[in-house]
Specification:
By secondary structure, the chain is an all-alpha fold. It has 15 helices and no strands. The protein has helices at 3-11, 14-33, 49-73, 80-95, 104-113, 118-147, 159-189, 191-201, 211-228, 233-259, 266-283, 294-307, 311-322, 324-342, 344-347.
Length: 349
C-alpha cells in the first residue's frame, strides 16, 4: 500500500473520529446533568433566528476565506473545487487530532496528492501555520490592552482558578511565540543554520534518538524555504489579509450565537471577540482531539457572563456549528477524495 495512503487511512480511521465525538458529547451531557439543567435546552425556542442564520452565513464566509487563501498561496494551482476538498479534509484532520498537534502532516499529504510538489506542499502548510500563529501573537496583546484586564473570565471561578487560567494562557502564548519566531527564522532568514542547530541539539546523548527525525525535518525546512522565495508583495499581502479575515470571521461566529439569545452592546461584542481569542490560545495546548471535552467544560467560564441560563445551549450550538459538521463532511469528502487521488483500486481496499 502507498505510504501516503496508509497514513491518510490511519489518521482518518473511524476510531479517531469516534473519540472526539464521545468526549464532546460526554462533556456536554455532564454540563447539563451536574446541576439538573436539562430543562434549559427548551431555551432554544427563545433564539433570534436571524442571528442564528447570520452565524451559519459567517461559517460559510469563513470557509470561503480559507479556500481563497489556500488557492492564493498556490498561485491558483488549485481550482475552487479542489480547494473545497483540501479545506474540508484539513478541517477534518484538525478535528480528530489534538489542538497541539493539528493536521499539518495530513495537510501536506493532501496538497501533495492534489498535484503540488512535496517541497511546495510543505512550504504552504508551514507558511499557513506561521500566518495563523502570527495573528495570535499580534492580536492577543491588543485584546489585553483594549479590555484592560477584563479579557480573563472571573464568572463562577475562584481567584486560584483565574490565576491558573492566566498561567495557561501565558504558557500557551509563549510556546506559540517561540515556535513561530523559530519558524520565521528557519523559513525566511537562515534555514541551513536552523538545520545545523537541530542536528547539534540532537547530538546530545539524551536526544540522540531523535537525530534522524531532526535531519529529515531540517531538510524539509530548507526545501520549504526555497519554495517561498521570489514571491512579490501582492502574494504576501493576500496571505496576510486573508488570514486576518478568516480568523475574524471565526471569532465573530460566536458573537452571532450569543446575540441570538441576549442583547449585546458594541463594547460587549469587542469583549466577546477578545475573550474568544484568549480562549483559543488556551485551547491550543489541549491534549484531546479538536479540544473535545475541554472546550465544552471551559466555555461557560469564558462566556457565561453574557449568557446566564443560555450558556449550556450556546456551547451546544457552537460545537454543532463549528466542530461536528467537519467530522460529518470529512467522512463524506474522504472516500471520494481517496478514489480521486489514489484511483479506483484504493476504493476497493
Amino acid at each position: 500500500m502507498d505510504q501516503n495512503k496508509k497514513t491518510i487511512l490511519q489518521n482518518f480511521s473511524p476510531v479517531k473520529v469516534l473519540i472526539p465525538v464521545l468526549l464532546g458529547l460526554a462533556a456536554t451531557a455532564w454540563l447539563f446533568i451536574k446541576d439538573d439543567r436539562v430543562s434549559e435546552l427548551k431555551g432554544i425556542t427563545d433564539a433570534n433566528i436571524w442571528w442564528l442564520l447570520a452565524a451559519l452565513l459567517v461559517l460559510v464566509i469563513r470557509d470561503a476565506g480559507y479556500m481563497y487563501r489556500i488557492r492564493s498561496l498556490t498561485d491558483k494551482f488549485l481550482t475552487w473545487r479542489n480547494s473545497i476538498d483540501v479545506i474540508m479534509l484539513w478541517e477534518f484532520a484538525s478535528a480528530i487530532t489534538p489542538s497541539v498537534v493539528g493536521g499539518t502532516t495530513i495537510a501536506t499529504i493532501i496538497l501533495n496528492k492534489e498535484g503540488i510538489p512535496l517541497g511546495k506542499s510543505l512550504a504552504y502548510v508551514m507558511f499557513t501555520a506561521v500566518l495563523d500563529n502570527m495573528f495570535f501573537i499580534v492580536a492577543a496583546p491588543l485584546a489585553l490592552l483594549l479590555t484592560q484586564g477584563q479579557v480573563f473570565p472571573t464568572f463562577n471561578l475562584d481567584p486560584s482558578d483565574v490565576a491558573k487560567l492566566q498561567s495557561a494562557f501565558y504558557i500557551s502564548y509563549s510556546l506559540i511565540a517561540i515556535y513561530t519566531f523559530a519558524m520565521i527564522y528557519a523559513l525566511f532568514i537562515n534555514p541551513r543554520a536552523f538545520k545545523w542547530l537541530l542536528l547539534k541539539v540532537t547530538s546530545w546523548r539524551l536526544l540522540r534518538k531523535w537525530r534522524v527525525n531532526a535531519f529529515q525535518h531540517g531538510n524539509e525546512i530548507v526545501w520549504a524555504s526555497q519554495q517561498l522565495k521570489g514571491n512579490d508583495f501582492n502574494y504576501w499581502a493576500r496571505a496576510i489579509i486573508s488570514t486576518i479575515f478568516v480568523w475574524c470571521a471565526r471569532y465573530f461566529l460566536l458573537n452571532c450565537l450569543i446575540a441570538a439569545f441576549t442583547d449585546v452592546t458594541f463594547a460587549e461584542h469587542l469583549l466577546i471577540i477578545s475573550r474568544n481569542l484568549i480562549f483559543w490560545i488556551v485551547m491550543l495546548i489541549a491534549i484531546t482531539p479538536g479540544g473535545a471535552g475541554i472546550v465544552e467544560m471551559a466555555f461557560p467560564s469564558f462566556f457565561g457572563l453574557f449568557l446566564g441560563a443560555y450558556s449550556g445551549i450556546v456551547v451546544v450550538l457552537y460545537r454543532l456549528i463549528t466542530y461536528y459538521p467537519y467530522l460529518v463532511l470529512g467522512s463524506v469528502f474522504l472516500p471520494r477524495w481517496i478514489a480521486k487521488v489514489f484511483g479506483k483500486q484504493t476504493q476497493e481496499v
